[in-house]
């Protein structure tokens, strides 16, 4: 049977994770997969999460099924967190999904049913899983210009020109905030222009919001999504709790549909539930229940927000420290853009030869497009990384 298959390509993020684990050098610097790490290199469980888990442990009375849409209180709280008051709730439907990736997969499958001939546009570059996922859902995939590695900034004019040429048979995947892999994000004014273009052309927005709260703040990071909601009457959004609640392995995300009217919302929702039932029947509850408890409880919510804020500000400090350390050593502003980027990632614009040399000579691991995860850097590692980058790029 399996002789009919050839070997599938390995996901480069997980391949790098295995390569790093196999490197015995004690001073290795892991800038790979997108998990938050504290100064000691650990990915801690947030205290609000621990408390919510203790509450579940003490009070839960059953493990019976929850239903195809998953935890309803969770989904309502996630809609509010992402959309705020930007859209009337009678046009919104949401389902819990296994992680942001699961949420995205459910929505891609739904969109394929709704518009089988659409072209799915992703940014150039984008998260390495976007293209394979869209292709697996059966879409033709194309890329719109996004990032200029020479300056570390968004190629906004080129992006807008590409969007202006689209039409109703185009679906545009937009990173809600904290662009992965580049770290370069749209300004509020640029978001407004993107939304105006899509409103004019009829292109359909699919917003991937995996890092809300990791950029400029929970509401600030939702600016683009809410601008879409205020102007465009139908779109979808995949959100994730992996990063902002630090519950990566629990796999918690949410698929959100906004439709033109309540009747269309009901139809789209019935299709979404049909997709879920036919794939994994219903999502696992534990992680979603943690998030529901936190978001519905004032004290726990405040505790979580403070922890999230501490992570967010530390990442910004890391960015500044790395940009400063490189500038001091190189006497150039070539990497100053790192301090302007937001979220976990920055794309440094290094070539593969330099990336390979950093790996072999300095035990510095980044993705092969030069994406680095800024969150894992304690001060001593920042200084060593700056030495290595300046040494390798001289
Ligand atoms: C990443 O980009 O490193 C994260 O989103 C983890 C993943 O699933 O790829």
TrEMBL record:
Cited InterPro entries: Aminotransferase_I/II_large (IPR004839), Asp_trans (IPR000796), NHTrfase_class1_PyrdxlP-BS (IPR004838), PyrdxlP-dep_Trfase (IPR015424), PyrdxlP-dep_Trfase_major (IPR015421), PyrdxlP-dep_Trfase_small (IPR015422)
GO MF annotation, one: identical protein binding
Keywords recorded for this protein, A-Z: Aminotransferase, Pyridoxal phosphate, Transferase
Transferase among keywords: yes
Location of the Aminotransferase class I/classII large domain: 27-389
Pfam families in alphabetical order: Aminotran_1_2
CDD domains for the chain: AAT_like (cd00609)
Enzyme Commission identifier(s): 2.6.1.-
Any one of the GO CC terms: cytosol
Cofactors, names only: pyridoxal 5'-phosphate
GO terms classed as biological process: L-phenylalanine biosynthetic process from chorismate via phenylpyruvate
PANTHER family per record: ASPARTATE AMINOTRANSFERASE, ASPARTATE AMINOTRANSFERASE, MITOCHONDRIAL
Family: Belongs to the class-I pyridoxal-phosphate-dependent aminotransferase family.
Assembly with partners or alone: Homodimer.
Protein name: Aminotransferase
């Amino acid at each position: 049977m399996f002789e009919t298959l050839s070997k599938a390509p390995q996901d480069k993020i997980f391949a790098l994770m295995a390569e790093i684990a196999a490197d015995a050098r004690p001073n290795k610097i892991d800038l790979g997969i997108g998990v938050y790490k504290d100064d000691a290199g650990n990915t801690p469980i947030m205290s609000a999460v621990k408390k919510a888990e203790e509450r579940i442990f003490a009070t839960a009375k059953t493990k019976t099924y929850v239903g195809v849409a998953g935890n309803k209180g969770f989904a309502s709280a996630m809609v509010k967190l992402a959309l705020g008051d930007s859209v009337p709730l009678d046009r919104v439907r949401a389902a819990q999904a296994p992680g942001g990736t699961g949420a995205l997969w459910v929505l891609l499958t739904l969109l394929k049913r709704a518009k089988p001939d659409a072209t799915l546009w992703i940014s150039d570059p984008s998260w390495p899983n976007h293209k394979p996922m869209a292709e697996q859902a059966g879409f033709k995939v194309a890329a719109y210009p996004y990032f200029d590695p020479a300056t570390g900034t968004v190629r906004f004019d080129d992006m807008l020109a590409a969007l202006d040429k689209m039409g109703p048979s185009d679906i545009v995947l937009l990173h809600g905030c904290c662009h992965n892999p580049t770290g370069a994000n749209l300004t509020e004014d640029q978001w407004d222009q993107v939304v105006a273009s899509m409103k004019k052309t009829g292109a359909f927005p699919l917003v991937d919001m995996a890092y809300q709260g990791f950029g400029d703040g929970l509401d600030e990071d939702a600016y683009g999504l809410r601008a879409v909601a205020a102007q465009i009457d139908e779109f979808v959004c995949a959100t994730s709790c992996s990063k902002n609640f630090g519950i990566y392995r629990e796999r918690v995300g949410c698929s959100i549909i906004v439709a033109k009217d309540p009747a269309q919302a009901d139809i789209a929702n019935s299709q979404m539930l049909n997709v879920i039932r036919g794939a994994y029947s219903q999502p696992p509850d534990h992680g979603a229940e943690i998030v529901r408890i936190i978001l519905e409880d004032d004290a726990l919510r405040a505790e979580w927000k403070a922890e999230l804020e501490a992570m967010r500000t530390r990442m910004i400090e890391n960015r500044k420290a790395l940009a400063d350390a490189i500038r001091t050593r190189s006497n150039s502003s070539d990497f100053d853009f790192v301090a302007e980027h937001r979220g976990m990632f920055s794309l440094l614009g290094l070539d593969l030869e330099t990336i390979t040399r950093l790996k072999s000579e300095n035990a510095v691991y980044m993705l092969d497009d030069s994406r680095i995860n800024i969150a894992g850097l304690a001060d001593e590692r920042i200084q060593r990384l700056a030495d290595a980058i300046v040494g390798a790029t001289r």
